[in-house]
Predict the 3D structure of the following.
Amino acid sequence: MAKKTYNRVTKDVGNIIALEHVNVTVPDQSLATYFYVNVMGFTRDPYMEWGPYNVWVNAGRQQFHLPTAKPQVLRGHIGVVVPDLQRLASRLKQMSKRLTDTHFNYSIKKQHITVTCPWGNELRCYPPGKFGQMQLGIPYVELNVPTGSATGIARFYEEIMDCRAILNGKSDRVDVQIGQMQRLCFKESKKASPEYDGHHIAIYVSNFSGPHRKLDEAGRITEESDDNQYRFQTIFDPKTNQSLFDLEHEVRSLHHPMYERVLINRNDAQSFFHYQKDRDAFTPAEQ
């Protein structure tokens, strides 16, 4: 009987432990709250950023940060897992009237629903089971990058950020593995991308100093935020030093006070007319 073998590499966890939030600015806090909370079914953070200039929206163990400013649009799309696609489809149909005359749109596919926010950001919504145990959250962010850049991007995350980066067979797409159930995806596109407008992501890394040293030596650090955080913007090929793509990374250590902060999530099935006692909260599976 043949001895069973295992590919142990597939269970490795790279240096980026978690993708925590996606930050895009919006010009209208009321409309943003309506879209992300009422329509999408996510939860406004009950403790943080309750002024009129920002809103933090919880989606499982991840967040959307939405400061007030000229709208920013991510060059790609954001993958989200929602507890029930049918409930989402129902809300999209019932609540779309208020979003008329914006970029809002949606299309229902066989295995997901694509939703465009009022300012043009695309969310691709999946049911539980698609990304491990995740029942609610942001499993990936996919970016459209220039033709010929995927291999260099893979080298950047492997050599600078100490991650596991997987190129597909055509070498025109790279998936950067994050923790157990998340990833950053970079997909080459022949279409010209809009000019980078400053949107960013926040990540937690176990090796905080190593990437910082390499980025600093390359002159790529853009902000020394504090003892537990720094930022960089440009992804570059460490082999050639060529700049490949701009996406600001808010890099946090595991000593950051917000690491593993418990996020409150509501049960989007609850309503006044269909209320079920003691079922107000939604507790995402371990991710």
